Amino acid sequence: MTVAANDTVLDAVRAIVGDTIRIGAAKLDIDAEFPELGIDSIIAMELMENLSRHFGIAFTPAQFLTVNSVRELAAFIEGHGTAPATPPAKPGVPPAQFGRLDTLLGTVRSRYGVDLTGRRWESVDQIVDELVSNNLERVLAKVDASSLFAAPPAPAERPASTDIAIVGIACRFPDAPDAATFWRNLMAGHASIREIPKERWDWESCYAPVAEPGKTVSRWGALVDDVDRFDAAFFGIAPQEAALVDPQERLLMQEVYRALQDAAIDPGTLAGTNTGVFVGYEYSGYEQALRRNQERLPGLVCSSASPTYYLANRLSFLFDLRGPSESVNVNCASSAVAINRACLSLAQGESDVAIAGAACLHLAADDYVASTQYGLLSPDGSCGVFDDAANGFTRGEGVAAIVLKRLDTALADGDRVYAVIKASHQNNRGAAGSLSEVKHEAIADVIARCWDKAGVARDAVRYIELNGYAKKWADSFEFEGIRAALGGSGGGKHCALGSLKGNIGHLEPANGIAAVIKVALALHHKRFPATITRRTPSSFIDLGNPSHPLYFADAPIALDDMRDDAGAPVCAGVSSFADSGVNVHIALEEFVARSPAAGVAGGPQLFVLSAQDGARLADYAGVFAAWLEQAGPEVCFADVAHTSQVGRAALPARLAIVAASLDELRGKLALLRERGLDNAGKLESHGIFCHTLGHVGHVPLASLVTERMARAQLELARAEGQWQQVALLWVHGVAMPWQLAWSGLPARRISLPGYPFARERHWYALQEPGAAAQASLVPEVHLPAALSLPEFAVAADTPREPAALLERFLRERTAQLLDCAVADVDPEATFAALGLRSIAIAELVARVNRLLDVNLAPTVVFQHPHAAALAAHLAQAFPDEVAALLDTIAGAELPTHAAVPDILAPMQPHGAGTPLFLVPGADGSTLSLKPLCEALGTGRPLYGLDAQGLDGQCALPASMGDVVAANLAAVRRIQPYGPYRLFGYSNGGVVAFAMARSLMEAGEEVAALYLLDSLCPEQRTATELDLVVDVFSHVMATLGARFDVDMARLEAVAPDERGEYLYRLMMEHGVVLDRQYFLTSYRIATTSERLARAYALAPLPRAVDVHLIRALDAYPDAPADYGWNRYLVAPLTAHDVSANHYAVITAGHAAAVAAVIAAVETPAADDAVDDAVDDAVDGTERPPATKRGKAGNRRRGAPRPVVLES
């Protein structure tokens, strides 16, 4: 097999990829990863076929997944195939090695940030030499470089020590959103059991005071709040998928992240490591409901969403963890088994870090009914462990995770250790009289073997957290098992028995981990809380007998009161049993530091905080401020600063505060809360720095500052106590080697508040079997087909007040579009906040139009953004239509009326300064510019100008003059006089140019004109029909359909019938859109293109500040100015955004466009950042005379591209 010359293959691959994705080869970034180029699995299949056809090689999907960019793809092909008509390769590297080298180069580039793909490499040794000689520091910061190239390592030897440290804890229990609150509740003797609220499920519908078939005797539970809320965006999960994911899994993701935070571990540092995940569970009521309603769902339940076997696997996927990943279901002992498995994995060297977790939610009544039939539940809501009146348990909920390391590793890493797991042991009851029988011999065996394994004398055990059956008979067998295991004692009562079931109920699969967390916290805080389960001692349990060491922990017990005379660490055990026969016991020991931690000398330090966005950061700062108010004298500011730096992931929205004490930090957080994050830029003189990466008006500094520079700046800050420059660099994205700042200092890792996840609702409200009939509204009166949608029905209790009727209709239609319950649609929540996107909003408005026989544009939601507001508007604007609707419900005919909507759309009417008026592209709807509107923020008013005729009723404009006249009439209602600021996207740029010329000819001033990827009409080389097909194909692709339009057949169709032809073609391929909406959009688009091409261009009469924002992948053959400069007195300024013509206005790229506008509107802020970069790099402050001038001084002359990555 011949190896082709590198440049030849690369050029060919570049051309093929460009043709496939419709990007000019000259504009194609050969190092961009394929997802950045929009290459999904469908496009990949087409690309593979094109490559195989050209190079004459077989190309499989598995091979395609081994490469990430055009350059890597070319290198792979070079090593695996022969390009046609290419010269033979130079001798040297065996062909089979190219794929291996390319894969290695890709790994080095993506994982370690070292790009070596620009050279030809002959061997692995050559690459190693380059890494060692010039890039060793960057690689070693991540991992030992030799591990990248060496043969697979030999199996790890079993570590000498089997002691396991608990280094991180996170939990969400009833009335306790975190471990600190849980501990306070335990110490306060707080009970969280209460009557099940109606919003969970209606217990009255299936309740009976005594057991009956199909009924439950329990109306009680210890439940967690907001089980339907989840921060899907934080974990990169689409909202539709998030609604399908088991809420147990969703909450567990958040608690695992918080547990890693509590352990002061940046999750990113675990990627690719031998980190094991072990999760206990029992069942998923949510998944069962999904499967019963699968025909109503938009996706497959069994794909990757709800099944419980993904509980552990999704966590491994999410954080790229390469150790074991196991979900465990052995009923109530599940989480204890998971912890046992995690400890074994660590002890055997299988894992270096282990995460053990569990989740338990009770979302429906069916399991309550089943448990009642087995006699397990308490009718009075008690959990009377060891109580004489024990009559069963009350169900509780919880989600929890702990982070484990081998103790020697934890000590070497400087971790805070809650407690030490000395040993764990598991057995099974074996044969018995029944499957659920409790055998005290098996209990005694598992406890005795566990402590023997731990090497701890049984008379040294000071506390046992009971499994606690909460049944008088079964509890007595657990007591006998403990007594048999710990034996007789001449030392009096020295082993306390306790249970947390009275506090939070029985958490079933999560019971074991909840008990371990309780005991670990008690050992850490040096005090066991009182047990509140018992009122009268069980007559079956002889606690007072002096022959055994057991007593009940009725009151709090200090560890110092439990120690032996030698002062040895206190040992405590946790038991967790399942009625399936599984028994687990876990032996824990108090951790005693080898030497007291010395304090860090006083002086300024840098406290850092980050979040996914500004809203989360503001919440996080508030959480920290509240935590600091409660912080005791044991909290050291240096520990807080140290943990904030080394123990947290650096997220996009960042805050850095220079302070010298906790009091100073409290004061600055209070100042920030008072002024707000939006004004944080004015607080830098107070040592407060804030920035969101990718935010408008700033440039990314991370690419300008090398690791060596960052290290030098950090060393300087540590030496001089001047942290301002480090703060500025870090908030602008520069990675800091924080450990360097603490080298040789005794700072500790401590517990700090966990991340405040967004609380967005992701839920499918699904009817249980038989519920549909009960919930239906009868009798029903259906509207005439001409006026209604098939699913719209009016019940006997339909509101007769116009606004109330319309609000109900809007809520029902919104619920249908979101696939949720009507009750979950808040009438005062904006449609966007509820989750409706542009197409869904257009569909909603189309349904309103059909209901009332009116013609509203989708942009009506800008003025009336939620159901209540829109309903009130409709009732007021169309009283005759609504009255006719009410008559129709009573049997009358509905007359036809129409309304002419205003083309002005107040997209964001608040803020100071001159408004910016935005003209959309060929689709004519300012709804398409909503992502840009959101990216621009609330600083300046924003108004959109819809196309005439978008309502489906008004006549389409006959000329560009008609468009300009209507637009300026609307503009002058908001702003009668200049200076004006105009913006136009695509064809809207031509309209904005025409508006600017008309204003200037009338003597008005135009301060700024923004043309977003708007090609001058005379530069348009494609035919009008070609552009129509291109737009149509793009719209279909966004809706998930990809098919070719037969141009010959389309050309044969009469122009006025082409819209109908395309609509039928779309329907044939399974894409469903409202017909009237589609045809109106088609007519708007074709009219827009026709008017733009027919517009008679003439130069602007005076100089205007014109900015052309070009999509890099749109018009590769167009001149740099897109043809506009010949019509301008002064040349425009060009800015480049890495996107294609259609993607440039989407959420993924709108921020880059907004950044251009913000930089132009506030140039001084951009220059200040540039100066700050230079100051930070060289450590000096420039005198005012040497600082850069305003951006306005740089805008004249030939276009100078400014590439902004979105």
Automatic annotation (TrEMBL):
Region annotation (Disordered) ranges: 1170-1206
Alphabetical keyword list: Cytoplasm, Phosphopantetheine, Phosphoprotein, Repeat, Transferase
Keyword Transferase included in the entry's annotation: yes
Domain Carrier: from-to ranges: 4-81, 801-878
Entry protein name: Phosphopantetheine binding protein
Recorded GO CC terms: cytoplasm
InterPro entries: AB_hydrolase_fold, ACP-like_sf, Ketoacyl_synth_C, Ketoacyl_synth_N, PKS_Beta-ketoAc_synthase_dom, PKS_NRPS_Biosynth_Enz, PKS_PP-bd, PP-bd_ACP
One of the Pfam families matching this protein, by short name: Thioesterase
Molecular function GO terms recorded: fatty acid synthase activity; phosphopantetheine binding
Keyword Zinc: no
Pathway: Antibiotic biosynthesis
Subcellular localization: Cytoplasm
Coiled coil: none
One of the GO biological process terms: fatty acid biosynthetic process
